[in-house]
Amino acid sequence: MKCRTVVAFASLWAGVVVGTVVGPTMFGSSPSVAATPPKPTITEDASAALAQMNTALLSKEFSFHADTIRVYESGDHEQLHVVHNFTVTVRRPDRLLIAGTGDDGPRKLLYDGSDVVFARGDGKTYATLPVPNTIQQMMYVVMGRFGLDFPLADFLTDAPGKAFLTGVTTGREVGMVTIDGVPCRHLVFFQPPGIELELWLEKDRAVPRRLIVVDSALPGSPNFVAEMSDWNFNVHPADAEFSFTPPEGAAKVEFGTVTGELRTRGSP
């Protein structure tokens, strides 16, 4: 899947993509002024839905559950899938917990406002990294320094609606559907050269219930699917929930070692 800011957080969880951003000039070409990109064409109903989502996701404290399926490429260049399920707990501006399991076992990411910890196998192997004191800045460091792409991260930024529309040129509401008995708005957006994003938002609360990303510009049109549920805006997590104490005999490794393994295997 092509690296994009918009689909950013759980790929540390659901499979990692290392992307390259190419600027307006290439090696060997003469410098030139990039043309002003056309203004995105987002329909009024789609814009209103994202604005409502933005307000909901700027709540100080909340949690949700996610089940994801992500494509990764095997050593034989096969398009394979890895499945994960996890719970995200947010306390803005500087606390984040992701805990769950998947095809490759249990893992946990904790952020306490000063360090981010990635623990595997019930904490038997873990890595830590000092980071800035906001969720968004922490993600910038981890993505920028280690080249990791996090699907779902847009929903955790300081401006979720704006972040989701990064690079998008068109968007509209397809219609209303029902997910687990809840009316949801079905939205579709496009980002050149070939990324399509389908987003389902609850009609009343405007929280995300489903996200599907397809990149038709890449071989095999790889995709990412996330089903989100159990949104809770009445949680009050304590500081202790975001701290990590390694169990006896745990092995601490370099953060870059963990991310290097993720790149090799295509999943955390």
Outline the fold blueprint.
Layout: H1 11-14, E1 41-42, H2 44-57, E2 61-73, E3 79-91, E4 95-102, E5 107-111, E6 115-120, E7 125-130, H3 135-146, H4 160-164, E8 170-179, E9 182-191, E10 195-202, E11 208-215, E12 223-232, E13 251-252, H5 255-265
Parallel strand pairs: 1-8, 7-13
Antiparallel strand pairs: 2-3, 2-12, 3-4, 4-5, 5-6, 6-7, 8-9, 9-10, 10-11, 11-12
Gap between N and C termini: 16 Å
> How many helices?
5
**What's the main sheet like?**
13 strands, mixed
Could you name the CATH class? Mainly Beta
Tell me the name of the CATH homologous superfamily.
Lipoprotein localisation LolA/LolB/LppX
Spatial strand sequence of the major β-sheet: 1-8-9-10-11-12-2-3-4-5-6-7-13
Helix-strand pattern: HEHEEEEEEHHEEEEEEH
Mean pLDDT: 83
**How many domains make up the 3D coordinates?**
1
Radius of gyration: 19 Å
Shape-level CATH architecture: Clam
The global form is: globular
Which class of secondary structure composition applies to the elements?
alpha+beta
What can you tell me about this protein's structure?
By secondary structure, the chain is α+β, with helices and mostly antiparallel strands. It has one domain (11-17, 40-265): outer membrane lipoprotein receptor (LolB), chain A, CATH 2.50.20.10. Strand 2 (61-73) and strand 3 (79-91) form a beta hairpin. It is globular. The protein starts with 10 loop residues before the first helix and ends with a helix. The chain contains 5 helices and 13 strands.
